[in-house]
Amino acid sequence: MLIDNNVELINFYLVVRDHLEDLLSDLPKHKNEADYYYRIRALDPEKMDPVRRASRFLYLNKAGYNGLWRVNRQGKHNVPFGRYKNPKIVDEENLRLVSAALKRARILLADFSEVLSFAKPGDFVYFDPPYHPVSETANFTSYTSDSFGKDDQVRLSQVFRELDRRGCLVMLSNSDTPFIKELYSGYDIQIVYAKRTINCRADKRGPVSELVIRNYS
Hints:
Elements: E1 2-4, H1 7-18, H2 20-26, H3 34-42, H4 50-63, H5 92-102, E2 107-109, E3 124-127, H6 150-166, E4 169-175, H7 178-183, E5 188-196, E6 206-214
Parallel strand pairs: 1-2, 3-4
Antiparallel strand pairs: 4-6, 5-6
């Protein structure tokens, strides 16, 4: 089961799973040009059919700056054109692999807490939330128009603990901050290093420490 509250992402998953051939037919029309990019970005996804909406989502992700997906408070995508020489907008082999994997998945547009309606003892649950900011200038949580703040992080930790009480195996990734470590004190917390390419300063891109938190070892 896949649960997310980003309607663009969930629509994309559903189209890749259920309408892949239509998506593959639509993707080649996209152009790696700034004027075209901004015209597509300005379209209202709510007025598009699911396939064209998924095609727009993937195009903006591939052609936008640093592969970033970001929206403002009005839900408008606001990432600038990436100016890449040849972005791989149509990766048919990968999309077919993803489509096959998603055939076995239930896909749900919902808040993360909805997992409590389904989780049973012995189930494995993995959370990949918007990360807690490591500094005031790194406060990016705008994958949807509703930012993911401290209260949401606390609520997520409560869901984590409830799943633990139910006998589920639970894993969560988040940023390496004292706040997150305190929220999950008592659990297995491992520091890992992940390469990050999304930063306005090139010298700040590279391996950064993150936390992998588990209720098992």
